[in-house]
Amino acid sequence: xxxxxxxxxxxxxxxxxxxxxxxxxxxxxxxxxxxxxxxxxxxxxxxxxxxxxxxxxxxxxxxxxxxxxxxxxxxxxxxxxxxxxxxxxxxxxxxxxxxxxxxxxxxxxxxxxxxxxxxxxxxxxxxxxxxxxxxxxxxxxxxxxxxxxxxxxxxxxxxxxxxxxxxxxxxxxxxxxxxxxxxxxxxxxxxxxxxxxxxxxxxxxxxxxxxxxxxxxxxxxxxxxxxxxxxxxxxxxxxxxxxxxxxxxxxxxxxxxxxxxxxxxxxxxxxxxxxxxxxxxxxxxxxxxxxxxxxxxxxxxxxxxxxxxxxxxxxxxxxxxxxxxxxxxxxxxxxxxxxxxxxxxxxxxxxxxxxxxxxxxxxxxxxxxxxxxxxxxxxxxxxxxx
Length: 386
Ligand code: NIG
Ligand code: FE
What we know:
By secondary structure, the chain is an alpha/beta fold. Helices cover 35% and strands 20% of the residues. It has two domains: 3-61 and 344-383, Roll (Urease, subunit C, domain 1); 62-337, Metal-dependent hydrolases (TIM Barrel, Alpha-Beta Barrel), CATH 3.20.20. It has helices at 76-83, 93-102, 105-121, 137-148, 170-185, 203-215, 232-238, 252-261, 269-274, 282-287, 308-318, 323-337, 364-367, and strands at residues 3-6, 11-12, 21-22, 25-30, 33-39, 49-52, 58-60, 62-64, 124-127, 129-130, 154-159, 191-196, 219-224, 243-246, 264-267, 292-294, 354-357, 374-379, 382-383. The strands form five sheets. The protein has a seven-stranded parallel beta sheet with strand order 10-11-12-13-14-15-16. A four-stranded mixed beta sheet has the order 5-4-1-6, with no helix packed on it. The chain has a four-stranded antiparallel beta sheet with strand order 7-17-18-19, with no helix packed on it. The longest helix has 17 residues, at 105-121. The protein is globular. The relative contact order is 0.16. The mean pLDDT is 97. Residues 66, 68, 223, 297, 299 line the site of fe (iii) ion.
């Protein structure tokens, strides 16, 4: 059946940017795909169903290109300690690894399902999910297998940190990740990622692991420059990464290299918020010609939020992004960070993933922090929330 979305206060299509916010426009979709966009006066008159946006804003669904939803337990005590002045260190990951290994499949699955429900309520229609709290063959593979039940955008992050049992022999762990673990992960993974930072993997280890993944056919992502710049960006450029994520600390020359390599910079302001760190200034990325994506990085340690609306508000307030930049980064930027060309644009042939706000403009997503502004989310044309 053909559905018409009409009476839209402002429409964000992500096609062109002049103007970014379109008024007087409507669109139609059928069988999960958009088939027409144009002035409402020209809308086809054979639509069997009408969605009346009641003067509210309509935009593509958010694309969360970075999350870690397969875990058990929480680290609220670690968060509270950080708020009292403790610094964030990668070591906290080990406690989530212990809880995840001890959990049953159904506990991991239902925790992930409830977080994905939160994503949907937050307007997220596509998400990536990483492994990385198993850190042995059995637990990394079951993490990926469960993640695959929720999204095709699954990422093998066996190189999150070196597990305690390999502390005295990191090389043996890197061998395992590049060998048996990678082979077992392949059927359930589209991406490979490494946490390349102080306390995690160094650039040489990251290079070896990413190269093995890329040679096996996986697309490359990298966690880098969160705690400190240790050379991860060079590795990402060398290996043709699609995105580099975090980038809390980044020099001008690193920005220039990212721009030259056409790598998407995925900024994660939920992390700076939850680790009480300084926020990167997004203006530097735009000035350098780097494409920016925004993602939640939902995980129990450094950013336990599923709210893209919070991420947008922080990006606007703390990272100096305009609302338009932030919305584009949370939709089209995320799609590019996932190498996806079928989502995040409202145009004929694209997937009908979109949301209707309860507000007349996208400004409200940052202007009303902490107050949900999403009335309805549609995934392939089907309403997820009512
Ligand atoms: O993306 N930085 C590395 N990994 C996660 C955090 C993991 C954790 O602290 O549990 C991140 O922030
Ligand atoms: Fe992460």
